[in-house]
Design brief:
It contains 7 helices and 11 strands. The protein has helices at about 10-15, 20-30, 45-50, 65-75, 115-130, 145-150, 210-220; strands at about 35-40, 55-60, 85, 100-105, 130-140, 155-165, 165-175, 180-190, 200-210, 225-230, 245-250. A 7-stranded mixed β-sheet has the order 3-2-1-4-5-11-10, with helices on both faces. It has a 4-stranded antiparallel β-sheet with strand order 6-7-8-9, with no helix packed on it. It is globular, with a radius of gyration of 18 Å.
Amino acid sequence: MNAYDPFARFYDADLRDYHEDVPFLRELARRSGGPLLELMCGTGRLLLPLAEAGFAITGVDHSPAMLAIAREHVQAAGLQAQVTLIEGDVRTVSLPEGAFNLAFVGVNSFMHLETVRDQLACLSIARRALQRRGLLVIDLFNPNPAEIIREDNRLILEREYELDGRHVQKFVAIDSDTAAQLSHVTYIYDETTADGRLTRHTMRFSLRWLHRFELEHLLARAGFMLRSVYGSYDLAEYDSSSPRLIAVATPTR
């Protein structure tokens, strides 16, 4: 079983109301034209609105459970003709060369690739899949040293919601290693049934944050030229106070 499979339904619920990046990607899709490629597509949060906007889009993810939920969403929306789902590792997946005009990795997902080797492998997949004038978008959080240094594995209640007739409390603890640029994240989901029975699910993973020029160097090594860096989905100029680090690049060969 994939390590993320048991948490697919929680992941879907966690992000179901997050839409801030959709207009940005939809406009880039309009300018680029389809087909589109999403690497690490999860449960299809971004696939659906882009397909609804008329684009043909392929989503890749290595979690069968995530893709099963995405497939349910696609079928419920009647978008099967426009959405292709591929189960695969973004470091090794086989995709048709030069088939896409826009490829993207949505909010923070690229950070799951912890090593330079893995990052370059994913970027190489994207480069081969893109047309010569295609665009690649990498959407990351902008690391703030002042906030990172305060991350001490303290358990915090992040949110509560209803899911499948149960009340869910999501707790988060983060412990960061500034030298390794790694955040070690623990999610705890407490599910409570109507009759008071509680089930706890614990998920642990690491995220590697990147800085602006580090990302540019990675892109160059993978055969991309950085075209733009934005600090928000409103295309604000990137600076140290920006909430996001969004890179837009094109293949150089």
